[in-house]
Amino acid sequence: MRVLHPSGESGPLTMTRYVVLIGSPLKHSVSPYFQQAAFDYYRLDIRYETREVAEKDLKATVDDLRRPEMVGANVTIPYKERIVNLLDEVDGNAVLIGAVNTVVVRDGTLRGYNTDAIGFVRALRRGAGFDPSGKRAVILGAGGAARAVVFALLGEGINSVAVANRSEERAEELAAAARRVASRAEVMSLPWSSLSQDALFGCDLLVNCTSVGMKHTDLEGRSPLGAELIPPRALVCDLVYNPVETPLLEAARKTGAKTLEGLSMLVYQGAASFEMWTGKEAPLEVMFKGAAKALR
Ligand code: NAP
User: What tens digit of pLDDT does each residue of 98-154 get?
Assistant: First the structure.
């Protein structure tokens, strides 16, 4: 049926709008479940759909976001870095991190943000009651997630950050970029081979930002650190969220360390994206339930 608008134009009075998840592969993605649950909670006529795209189709997929029914997008592996140059405007924090995971569409203009950093800080503060100010952190990994975590910690007044990565040059690259913006904090890189009790036991926060332990990959079932290296007095966070209890977190719990699951950051970063798209407060409980259900 064609509906006539009061203005005399024809067309539907309301239209279903869309947020899409751009990446590849997307088979195991959890975001569609908890984002749709949040849209449904507010009875918004918004569908969260996946767009599994090959690299050659990335530009066309991004341009497609300019259609009037598009609200925004999430961006995941492997396009978080490559999408930066395809957008009209990019938030300063996303430029610093070098990656965009959220696109907001306003009047056909594409604006890029990174909510991983906000999500990490909210998970730390609200999920674990941890205040990074004045603390010492060791970060395992130097990829996109590690960059978001390091810049987030600097923004929260961390006292020192040590970055250890399998490829040492990448760890030093991240540490050097962080030193350029760090006003007070000490930032260093550590060779992976020097990870020892001496290097680790003095830290207050240990964050695994590598993909080691991720389900459905050849790193499933593995921990980036031996149990003897886990600092028992630190908060141990794993960004890997599937499985919820990773081998690292299981070992940390056994040593008596406090732990924070990657699921918490996942939901908080998604909640920040939701608030940018809709202007509404994210229904956290609904989103946590949706994510946990998807992982089951
Ligand atoms: P990325 O850019 O591809 O970086 C992968 C990191 O893992 C690199 O530091 C890499 O080291 C390291 N790595 C890979 N295999 C390794 C191995 N066998 N031993 C030691 N280190 C290894 O990926 P990313 O975007 O940073 O994501 C990293 C992880 O965080 C993923 O599992 C992702 O799902 C998770 N994540 C979670 C959230 C959340 O909200 N919870 C958000 C973002 C990301 P090299 O540099 O040496 O290759």
Answer: 999 999 999 999 999 999 999 999 999 999 999 999 999 999 999 999 999 999 999
- pTM assigned to the model: 0.94
Q: Is the Cβ atom of 170 under 6 angstroms away from ligand 1?
A: yes
Amino acid at 264: S
**Parallel, antiparallel, or unpaired: how do β-strands 102-106 and 70-75 relate?**
antiparallel
**Within-domain flag for 233:** yes
The burial of 279, by beta-carbon neighbours within 10 Å (0-12 exposed, 13-18 middle, 19 or more buried), is given as exposed
Domain co-membership, 24 together with 86: yes
Q: For residue 185, give the DSSP letter.
A: -
Domain harbouring 79, CATH code: 3.40.50.10860
Residue 292 domain flag: no
State which ligand 1 atom lies nearest to the alpha carbon of 268.
40
- Residue 194 per-residue DSSP state: G
Domain that holds residue 48: 2-114
Number of domains in the chain: 2
Query: CA–CA separation, 104 vs 74, rounded Å?
Result: 9
Please report the atom of ligand 1 found closest to the CA of residue 145: 26
